[in-house]
Amino acid sequence: MMKENISRRNFLKGASATALGVAASGLISACEPKVATTAPTNVEATEAPAAPVSSWRTPPEPIADDQISTTYDCDVLSLGVGFAGLCALRAAAEKNPDIKLMGVERQKRDEWALFGHDFGHINSEFQADLGIPKVDEVEFLNNWQLMTQNKSNPALVMQFAKHSGETIDWIRKVLSQSVLDACVPMFWPETEHVIHQLNTGFRYYPGTAQWWTADNAIEAKEVMKDVLAYVEASLPSVQLFFGTTAQYVLKDASGAVVGAIATDADGKYVKYNAKRVILATGDFGSNPEMVKDLLGYIMGMTMEGDNVAMPMARDGTGHKMGVWAGGRLETEISTMGLDTIMADTLGGLWLDEEAIRFCNESYSGPEIRTFIAARLKRRKIVAVYDSTAPEMALYSFPGHGSFEPTQENIDALVDQLDKAYKAGATGDNGYFAADSLDQLAEYVGYTGEQKAAFLAQVEQYNTLCDAGVDSDFGKDPRLMFPIKAGPFYGHVITPTIGFGLVTTGGFVTDNDQQVLGQDYKPIPGLYASGNTCGMRFGPAYITPTPGVSIGIACTLGKVLGEHLVDTVA
Ligand SMILES: Cc1cc2nc3c(=O)[nH]c(=O)nc-3n(C[C@H](O)[C@H](O)[C@H](O)COP(=O)(O)OP(=O)(O)OC[C@H]3O[C@@H](n4cnc5c(N)ncnc54)[C@H](O)[C@@H]3O)c2cc1C
Predict the structure, then answer these.
(1) Three-state SS across 511-522?
(2) pLDDT digit string (tens) for 169-223?
(3) What gap in Å lies between CA 307 and CA 431, rounded to an integer?
(4) Pocket of ligand 1, candidates 90, 106, 110, 156: which has the most ligand atoms within 8 Å of its Cβ, to mutate?
(5) Which atom of ligand 1 lies at the shortest distance from residue 282's CA?
(6) Is 116 in the pocket of ligand 1 (CB under 6 A)?
């Protein structure tokens, strides 16, 4: 089966009101006629945005000194040793071996696992060697800001643009040959029909470094295990504590963060004194209370039967520790997938349960284009195309979840369509095929008025395709393939929301990933990187190239490690 479809299927499988101070004063003078007036309303800004009281916001009781079994001193402490934490420690150690570095990691050494396979980046030597064109950093930044509605921090995004290429080369430098050999570029080589910029303005870039062997034997975790092995063998200034869970950060009388308390594998309390502390514990998706509290906009979209879950995610300890220390969380926290319906990768013509078209099927990558479905359509959707579907698939753009037109994927698509054709009325895997549109309408469940609507909508779509202008929904003309040449296909999708991989937002930071307090001033000593760091994605996870979550975690982790060395040396 095609890679992207596998990805989508796995993805699908796994799938308060703010208290405002209102001062109202309305004065009606006795001699004035008594007409209804609107009282002037002042909404007072509170020091912190008021939020529902949730147990996770309450810090634990401090551990008394006499309960501490061991105390360590270091310059930089990373709480969490994942993509961001490990890259930060490695980069710091390489820049200055005299700095004392420590990493506290909850997982045991032999069970340590990270998630993913795609490392999104631009402008690496890896890409240059393959002939992948260099990307203009300014264009990359502006495109990112466009995609995130300018709600991401441009300074962090520009650091990603400038340093992601060198970061991936830096990672590849310490990999074993077998892991290195398993690396392939995504969406490369390109077909002559590739679309780099959609008519909506969004740009997409090829060349993500992917580790995804057919048997899933080599994924991101194998890559990072090699990095870990290198750090352990070659960088003695880094001391790692596996099986150790960070509990809370320590502050001194001035309000500076000066270390952390953790519990070791035996449940004993360990104290780490540090000049700089990095929150790098990943996301909070597996913490239901935090999800409910912090992702209210998604919870507000759910309906009966929806189950909001990110079973593979982290539990949000880093977010908790930062909040207890006074850190300010961004208010629109993005997630990887939670509020999108992963509809058909091909695009085609999407019809709702009444057989009515409702959006531009190719507005962007799936993270954004399916927002409409998630917010508007919660019943059956049918993606319709004809026998030109394999050709249409070549007109792809290199975003996550887009159809990657490799020969293997095209063959898998053709195979799927053939199976649907042979299956007749029962369909195969949600795909149906018929020699006539009339017949297809019945197979996908449109009868009576809906069937008439279906035929009329296909005709209207064909008219728009022939005219080369989607005057109904604005779809890119290059992706307007008429539905005229049988057999005809329908992919029936049952929309659900609520299954995601991770949350991708967190603390508002300055340009050096230093966590800001409620007063928007940096909290001395406290940093957030990876999925604890906010304002990288704005209101939604976006992928101008696949795998930017891992890409940005590694890149900004490295940038942070290098920066912190300068601040403590
Ligand atoms: C199945 C799956 C597939 C994915 N595929 C991709 C992909 O292909 N490309 C992509 O870009 N993104 C992908 N992602 C998302 C990506 O894995 C994350 O966004 C990425 O891991 C973020 O890196 P991080 O360093 O912030 O956190 P993590 O990699 O999660 O690292 C956090 C570390 O902190 C540790 N930790 C947590 N709490 C504590 C604590 N209290 N004390 C000590 N240690 C703690 C954790 O054990 C972990 O090792 C995928 C996610 C999933 C679940």
Answers:
(1) CCCEEEECCCCE
(2) 999 999 999 999 999 999 999 989 999 999 999 999 999 999 987 777 789 999 9
(3) 25
(4) 106
(5) 27
(6) yes
